[in-house]
Specification:
This protein has 250 residues and is an alpha+beta fold. The protein is built from six helices and ten strands. The strands form two sheets. It has an eight-stranded antiparallel beta barrel. Strands 5-7 form a two-stranded antiparallel ribbon. Strand 3 and strand 4 form a beta hairpin.
């Protein structure tokens, strides 16, 4: 199945039923985020293997357990993955925590973009990060807005100035499903919500402080790898093989 067809099919399933029909039919890597406001399940893209494998690794290690959705903006997105949020005091400003490394961008336009429910990697701004490398751990889930013709026109003009094309297919999807096109081609999209979009909707509506941190903590209680795609399994086996062949010295 080609990438465009998969993405369109996924959107139809999301809008028609709110989730894929059964776990057995899913062929992608799937992660379950059990939050204090409900469960969100995301499918990861094999077309972004660096981000896929890094996310699976962190989830497997329990990295996200106990962390917060520390930045929430209504009609835009919910952001999590800051390790400092695990022990944060009420009102503490968050967003600077990391894992000590960044990831190269894996932009996959026009196949994957910032439609509602997209999972993407946060990053530092262009002025300090001109290569647009992704955070090694922080991520966000898009909510965005449904866009009319005038908003699509403005978004297209803004992207054109950066040399990024907003195709007619993308524009139609934004009009029908909603999202945040101004981020396209600049932040890596590496997954999609397949269950729990209603939870994302509720989280993005919570009250926040001046730093966009929810006044009442929204906690990722536990993150679980439910399954790995064949490509992810092969990558995991290859990594294990490389580590056996090249043991680290103590």
């Amino acid at each position: 199945m080609n990438r465009k067809l998969f993405f369109i099919l996924l959107l139809l399933l999301l809008c028609g039923s709110g989730q894929l029909s059964a776990k057995k039919t899913e062929k992608r890597s799937v992660v379950r985020l059990e939050t204090s406001m409900g469960t969100i399940r995301v499918a990861l893209l094999d077309d972004t293997p660096i981000h896929r494998d890094n996310f699976l690794k962190l989830v497997s290690e329990g990295f996200y357990d106990g962390t917060l959705f520390h930045r929430v903006i209504r009609d835009f997105m919910i952001q999590g993955g800051d390790p400092d949020s695990r022990t944060a005091q009420p009102g503490q400003k968050l967003g600077e925590g990391d894992v000590g490394y960044t990831l190269p961008p894996e932009f996959r336009l026009p196949y994957y973009y910032h439609l509602r429910g997209s999972l993407a990697a946060a990053r530092e701004s262009d002025d300090v990060n001109p290569q647009q490398r992704s955070s090694g751990c922080q991520f966000y889930i898009v909510w965005g807005k449904t866009l009319g013709p005038s908003s699509i026109k403005k978004a297209r003009q803004n992207l054109d100035e950066k040399g990024i094309e907003l195709t007619s297919e993308m524009a139609n999807a934004y009009e029908q499903y909603g999202g945040s096109p101004h981020l396209d081609g600049q932040y890596t999209v590496f997954g999609q919500v397949i269950e729990g979009l209603d939870v994302v909707k509720e989280i993005q509506k919570v009250s926040t402080d001046a730093n966009d941190r929810p006044l009442s903590d929204v906690v990722i209680l536990k993150a679980v790898v439910e399954q790995r795609s064949k490509a992810a399994q092969q990558a995991q086996k290859q990594k294990s093989s490389d580590e056996r062949c090249n043991p680290q010295r103590s």
